[in-house]
Amino acid sequence: MTFPELKSKMRIFEDLYYIFLPKEGHLVWRYSTWNNVEILDIEAYKKRQGIGSKLIKRLVSDLDKNPPNNILGFTKEVNEDAQAFYKALGFELSSVIKLLYRRGGVVFISPYKKLRDL
Ligand SMILES: CC(C)(COP(=O)(O)OP(=O)(O)OC[C@H]1O[C@@H](n2cnc3c(N)ncnc32)[C@H](O)[C@@H]1OP(=O)(O)O)[C@@H](O)C(=O)NCCC(=O)NCCS
After folding, report:
1. Which of 45, 85, 94 to mutate for ligand 1's pocket (most ligand atoms within 8 Å of CB)?
2. pTM to 2 decimals?
3. CA within 20 to 30 Å of 75's CA: 44, 61, 100, 106, which one?
4. Dist. CA 106–CA 83, nearest whole Å
5. Measured in angstroms, how far is the CA atom of residue 83 from the centroid of ligand 1?
6. Domains annotated on the chain, with CATH
7. What sign for the dihedral angle of Cα 54, 21, 64, 106?
């Protein structure tokens, strides 16, 4: 493989994608390996008003034409709000991985197809 070919193969991982809903919240994602989508940041500027769910639904709808295998991400073990949120939306949570973050973290993951039913 040449270096330009390698760069071209990795190109898909270079971009970040933003869903920005002014005064509501944001979600930032990127492609990961094996056609997975990784959520890097999600925030609802006002909590428990359905904004987080709306952002996930928007992500799912944006990906409809080119569906990934899974949507996944990492969250801190101490972030119980986020874990409750992902669980409520049907994501699977891993057991605590002590090496993730300073005080441990978990992986959240869901097949893309399952999130289509939200
Ligand atoms: C995680 C976050 C994005 C959730 O957004 P949200 O708009 O508050 O979530 P929603 O209103 O869509 O909640 C959907 C469901 O998730 C569950 N849920 C959400 N927050 C919860 C909490 N703090 N405790 C328990 N359950 C919760 C509930 O079942 C909720 O449904 P309900 O309100 O009808 O009971 C929000 O808490 C946030 O911005 N946190 C700070 C940033 C952050 O930690 N991001 C995650 C980094 S990985």
Report:
1. 85
2. 0.97
3. 61
4. 9
5. 8
6. 3-115 (3.40.630.30)
7. negative
